[in-house]
Amino acid sequence: MSLDVNGLSVDCAVPADDAAPEGASSFGLLAAALSACTAMSVRSFLQRWDLGGDDEVEVDVFFQAGPPRVLHRRVGVRADLGVGIREQLAAVVDNTPVTVLLRDALVIVTRLDVGPDARPGD
């Protein structure tokens, strides 16, 4: 299957069985959309409040087949943020446009790692 996104062609494989598809899958594209939207929202939040660290935002998303179907999202921000700002950031992450669109259809589990030592996969 081929998709057209703003004039760019994206090939998407829909597997007929349990075999891993070659190329992007529909859930892989959803995970990519969630990751990109989350990263942009977190960077915008950090810039808006002049908190620094917007260049050190990492978002990892992976899909776990279900039932239930689950998207696991880890957001790493290497800025030193206080508790109140962390709570506001968590609310921003939980209300990104793609999160709002997906949360009624999929379970989204989010882990927020904040601080100078936040590293991918920890």
Q: Which SSEs are present, and which pair or pack?
A:
Blueprint: E1 2-5, E2 8-11, H1 26-48, E3 57-64, E4 70-77, H2 83-94, H3 97-102, E5 107-114
Parallel strand pairs: 4-5
Antiparallel strand pairs: 1-2, 3-4
Distance between the termini: 36 Å
Give the C-alpha Rg: 16 Å
Sheet-strand content, in percent, reads 25-35%
| Coarse shape | elongated
Q: Please write the string of helix (H) and strand (E) elements.
A: EEHEEHHE
Structural class: alpha+beta
Helix content: 25-40%
The biggest beta sheet, please? 3 strands, mixed
Indicate the low-confidence ranges by residue numbers: none
Number of strands: 5
Number of helices: 3
Strand order of the largest sheet: 3-4-5
**Overall pLDDT level:** 85
